[in-house]
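Input sequence (509 aa), recorded before submission:
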Amino acid sequence: MSEKMLSAGKGALFLTALSAISQALGFCYRVVLSRLVGAEVMGLYQLVMPVYSVILSLTAVGLTSAVSNLTSQHLALGNRRGADQTISACLKFFFLLLLPVGTAVILGSDAISVYLLGDARTQLGLILLIPCVALTGVENFHKHFFYGSGVVRPPAIVELLEQFVRTFAVITLLLLFLPQYPERVVGLIVTGMVLCEVFSSCTLVVLYHRRRGPLTGRGEESRVRRRRIFSIALPVGLNALLGNLLSAANSALIPQKLVEGGVERSAAVSQFGVVCGMTMPMLSLPIVFLGALNLVLVPRLSRACALDRPGEARRLISQAVSAVALLTLPCMAMMVVVGSDLGRAMFHQEGVGEYLVPLACAVAMNCGTSVLASSLNGLGRQRAVAVISLLGGGVQLGFTLALVPLPGVGMGGYVAGAVASAALELVLCLRQVVRATDMEVQPFQWLAAPGLAAALAGLVSNLLFRVLKDAGLSQLSAGGATLAFALILYLAALQAQGVRARDVLRLDW
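Predicted structure, token format:
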């Protein structure tokens, strides 16, 4: 590829800028979607989506990770032919896996919807997931080939355009065909997803072939290539599969356990839709940088390992953890302050702000876990990530089984499990990273300084927000003024502790 590669920092910044636009559009899409279809259909949609994740993890996730890691390694050594062979082999393996899996899901969709998901109204959505998975796999392989190559602009722009296409397709289908039965509404939503995947997969395939360039290098023997691909794909895919199976089981069990606790079926699905389909996406809105950071970090670490540069790997991980803490903690603090009002204004649902504080803590810990897990993947420690993820998923499932059916606990049991599992995974991932790299833990830089500054900004802003609303300001005006004040206070508190945000977030990391 003749395009000059961006540095890791600039690549992350570019991806973050586009991700911010994409995340904002995606959030607006979810708001409009929830208003059009209601909390109950959102709950049904949330039941279907874990199945989508399970199928992807069974067929594509591990191979996608192999494409990103091996492409980076091949290109670091000047072997472009080997990189091209990797993506071709992974595409073949993907379709060989998808054919039997997709057939089984389509033929067994009735049993899956009734006995596993607990609601027959999810059947149509399940059937339509298969073409969506096929297109998503093709898209992701080519996308991660670009990211592994260090060329971030084409896939990032396509991903942003994909959001526009999905929003237009889904909303247009709903406006044309509503009102419908809930099962058909879920089918319309998944159909819109299929249409947007047609656009993104075709576009990335065309861009890949146009930018491939001359195939230099000796390539790689088929036997060696298969062994290297499976050495990465199997642990990553197994981790994703088992983790998503636990997540799918958890999602299917929550409404059922709520019913056991005395909640009506429709109300149980609605509560599930509010927490998992509205509150969690709202809390995830400010952390747009995380996906971009991880996409850039993994191939960069793989390159450092291929060139035997352990010092560079330690520096990259340390600065990535510092950046995540510096950005995530104030975001979660401010979401706790304005989240209830934002949720009511956006979704017209009172329950959106009910579990904001514990869920914000869980999201913050998940962000730290995400960057540490990506670091382990880049270092070739996929098995450790798999075990940790399974332990966390098991803890979450245990809390759901034990606490959600209890009268008076309900969704609070799920939230408690989210906090406990996030804390466990964070501690275990940090331990593995330290053992793998001999990196020195920096508690002040990673947690104490941004945590204290975020706590101060959050507490003062909470008081200011209430005072401004009581003074007669609109929620929008009060929220905007509060956010501006909180940012200044947060940066000042960091500076007082000797932490300069500009140094942590500098582009040359």
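Checked by second reader. The longest helix spans residues 8-76.
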